[in-house]
Amino acid sequence: MDRRLFLALWPDPGLRHLLKERRDAWAWPKSASPVHADKLHVTLHFLGAVPGERLPELLEGFAVPFDPFRLELNRAALWHNGIAVLEPERAPPELLALNARLSTALVALGLPPETRSYRPHVTMARRAGGATLPPDGPPVIWDARGYSLVESKNGVYTVLRDYA
């Protein structure tokens, strides 16, 4: 049975609360689907459907070197496809290096890495065309001390393993 997986920076409860507050500061049109607070995260790589029997191999294969870093999410933006995001002005080099190391791990595991250039962000809502951006506030400071392998099943996200 396939498992729908992704690698992400996963917030602790305090950080999740700050992200929820930033999400709630937007003025959403009726068409918008704000992301539920328990799903707010920064995707590192989306794997998609992966055969479940590969899970033990993947759990080990995604253990790559990690250097802690500070991510400052300070820009609310509405992307052309109606995706509302909170993104950094500049991605920390350690985050970009982690993304690259995980790309290498994906290739070593025979999985295709993302082809688009990496744009770290937290998705605040989908179908949000016409949303009013919130006023500028202090940045959401994310002191990243690890990353996670997460499964999406029936609309529920479950952390399968934390890596530090």
Descriptive tags:
Cyclic Phosphodiesterase, Chain: A; 9 strands; alpha+beta; 3 helices; five-stranded antiparallel beta sheet; four-stranded antiparallel beta sheet; 164 residues
What does this structure look like?
The chain is α+β, with helices and mostly antiparallel strands and 164 residues long. The chain has one domain: Alpha-Beta Complex (Cyclic Phosphodiesterase, Chain: A), CATH 3.90.1140. Helices cover 21% and strands 37% of the residues. It contains 3 helices and 9 strands; from the N terminus they run βαββαββαββββ. It has helices spanning 13-24, 55-61, 93-108, and strands at 2-9, 33-34, 42-51, 69-78, 84-88, 122-126, 140-144, 147-153, 156-163. The strands form 2 sheets. The protein has a 5-stranded antiparallel β-sheet, with helices on one face. Strand 8 (147-153) and strand 9 form a beta hairpin. The longest helix has 16 residues, at 93-108. It is globular and about 45 Å long. The protein starts with a strand and ends with a strand. The mean pLDDT is 96.
